[in-house]
From TrEMBL:
Residues 21-563 form the Major facilitator superfamily (MFS) profile domain. It comes from Azospirillum thermophilum. This is MFS transporter. PANTHER family: MAJOR FACILITATOR SUPERFAMILY TRANSPORTER, SHIKIMATE TRANSPORTER. It is found in: Cell membrane.
Length: 571
């Protein structure tokens, strides 16, 4: 049964019921993202509380599981809850997801630490993180589908754009709550018990969200389809087992979501990583500047969602991808200029060079933080990358222990493992080729020598607060957030419109969470590995640029505009 919207549907104001639908769906999703971001923002404190007494083998396993919960599990949540949403309904499914997320988060806040209950503490924590990942995998697709199926024809971009604000608002809310807790108590008190407060607050947010969602009705499109007996009995099989639908899923992933994800992560997460880890801006200052940019930029989710109803979803998303590809390098170079000008000056006047055997240098991709890079080349590059120092590479003869040249000063690196594990021959050559007998002493000597040389050359250990141009940095960060709003604002409506009602929840959720959970989630560690390999502090931007460019090409050539699609069609 097709639905033909009248002209009045497209221009009339929101009804009270529609406002309640948008408010309830958006509010609940804000809380879900808030819950999800807390763990990442407080990961250093949580590690001290729950992993401090775990043996290295167990810690390795827990690290893998924590990583899986954060990113890899989300698509599985999309499958589980997408299937339920297409079979039993949107309302009850995404009611379950918020209960699962909220209760898991609250329990983290009351969970005894390792010192209190031993190995059970990290095990329970990982289980809770897995539940959070599963819940988040089901929440977004349900909220976007639910809102879109309530929206009148011609207003879906505007209505679903409110859902698109939720991830940014959730991040913003988590940063504010954590910042409020930190400034209201001593660092020692926060590390001991204050970190629990943001998790405990989630129970209040959960209660409000559940109360509002219980008052909602089922989606009219799903209700009508179910009354006609046309709902899917096997949404997974229909979505991914039939080529006509699987093809659209793949186009949604590679022609829309993958590019959207890397632009989103670059504009909000990698920008913060770049400020704090590369430019060494004070964490509180960096968080406040990011929060200011988010506050300025967030209304543009609604602006671009509304514009998408007028000119189409695809042109806006593709324009955002192109702008990101063309301007990321100059924007991030400008951020360096205004946030840490001393670093920019030092790199120009006293360039740093790593001299090493290329065969000894690894690509330091380490997503779960458990790998050990022990060759002299890896040690030298990792030390510079962690300090945010740009450098170039110079090849050395095979078997040479790496060194770092800062201007005219040379600092010898060292080998942190036996020769057999590094692949470097130590049986001949000058004594500088031999592995140090005392790795700890060698490491301390290398770090001191490198730090002294960098200081003499004018490389700042951290950004000087007096030299940070806050206005210009916030302006540049706001531009990055605007790109996020362009690619993300219209995408919920477009994903909903790409799939028929009977399999919509399942089909749109999987590509969304693969794109954002995997393509986006791998961005920080992949970009860091690229920077460590090349020495160029901006080279990590090639990852989002290449993904965004590939998505643009696929999207322009193969993804059709969906603005005028009738979403009330069942097939």
């Amino acid at each position: 049964m097709a639905y033909a919207a009248s002209t009045g549907d497209a221009v009339r104001p929101m009804s009270g019921e529609e406002k309640k639908v948008i408010f309830a769906s958006s509010l609940g999703t804000v809380f879900e993202w808030y819950d999800f971001y807390l763990y990442g923002s407080l990961s250093a404190v949580i590690a001290k509380q729950f992993f401090s007494g775990v043996n290295p083998t167990a810690a390795f396993i827990f690290a893998l599981l924590a990583f899986a919960a954060g990113f890899a599990v989300r698509p599985f949540g999309a499958l589980v809850f997408g299937r339920l949403g297409d079979m039993i309904g949107r309302k009850y499914t995404f009611l379950v997801t918020i209960l699962l997320m909220g209760l898991s988060t609250f329990i983290v806040g009351i969970l005894p630490n390792y010192a209190a209950i031993g190995i059970a503490a990290p095990i329970i924590l990982i289980v809770l993180r897995l539940l959070q990942g599963l819940a988040l995998g089901g929440e977004y697709g349900g909220a976007a589908t639910y809102v879109a199926e309530h929206a009148p024809h011609g207003r879906r971009g505007n209505y679903t754009a409110w859902i698109q604000t939720t991830a940014t608002l959730g991040l913003f809310l988590s940063l504010l709550v954590i910042l409020g807790c930190r400034v209201s108590m001593s660092p020692e008190a926060f590390d001991e018990w204050g970190w629990r407060i943001p998790f405990l607050i989630s129970i209040v947010l959960l209660g409000i969200s559940v109360w509002i969602r219980l008052m909602l009705n089922e989606s009219p499109a799903f209700k009508r389809m179910k009354e006609e007996g046309k709902h899917s009995k096997a949404p997974l099989t229909e979505s991914f087992g039939e080529w006509k639908n699987l093809k659209v899923v793949l186009l949604a992933l590679f022609g829309l979501v993958a590019g959207q994800a890397v632009v989103w992560y670059t504009g909000q997460f990698y920008a913060l990583f770049f400020l704090t880890q590369t430019l060494k801006v004070d964490a509180q200052t960096a968080n406040l500047m990011i929060a200011a940019a988010l506050l300025i930029g967030t209304p543009f989710f609604i602006v671009f969602g509304t514009l998408a109803d007028r000119i189409g979803r695809k042109p806006i998303i593709m324009a955002g991808l192109v702008l990101a590809c063309l301007t990321y390098f100059p924007i991030f170079k400008a951020i360096t200029h205004y946030a840490n000008p001393a670093l920019e000056t030092a790199a120009a006047t006293a360039p740093v060079v790593v001299v090493a055997d290329p065969n000894e240098c690894s690509f330091q991709f380490n997503p779960v933080g458990t790998s050990q890079f022990t060759s002299s080349c890896d040690i030298a590059k990792s030390a510079l990358a962690r300090r945010g120092i740009p450098y170039s590479n110079e090849a050395a003869p095979a078997g040479t222990v790496a060194s770092v040249r800062v201007g005219t000063t040379v600092i010898q690196s060292y080998i942190a493992a036996p020769a057999a594990s590094t692949g470097v021959s130590l049986s001949h050559g000058p004594s500088t080729h031999a592995a140090p007998t005392d790795v700890k002493a060698a490491g301390a000597a290398f770090d001191k020598g490198l730090s002294d040389a960098l200081k003499t050359a004018g490389y700042p250990p951290k950004a000087d607060p007096a030299q940070v141009d806050h206005v210009m940095v916030i302006a540049l960060l706001t531009v990055l957030v605007l790109y996020v709003t362009m690619v993300y604002g219209p995408i919920a409506a477009m994903l909903v419109e790409m799939f028929p009602t009977r399999i919509r929840y399942t089909s749109m959720s999987l590509p969304y969470h693969i794109g954002n959970g995997w393509f986006g989630g791998f961005l920080p560690t992949t970009s860091f590995a690229i920077v460590a390999a090349t020495g160029d502090i901006y080279s990590g931007l090639w990852y989002p640029i290449v993904i965004a460019a590939a998505t643009f090409v696929i999207g322009v050539l193969f993804v059709r505009e969906t603005r005028d699609v009738d979403i009330y069609q069942h097939d």
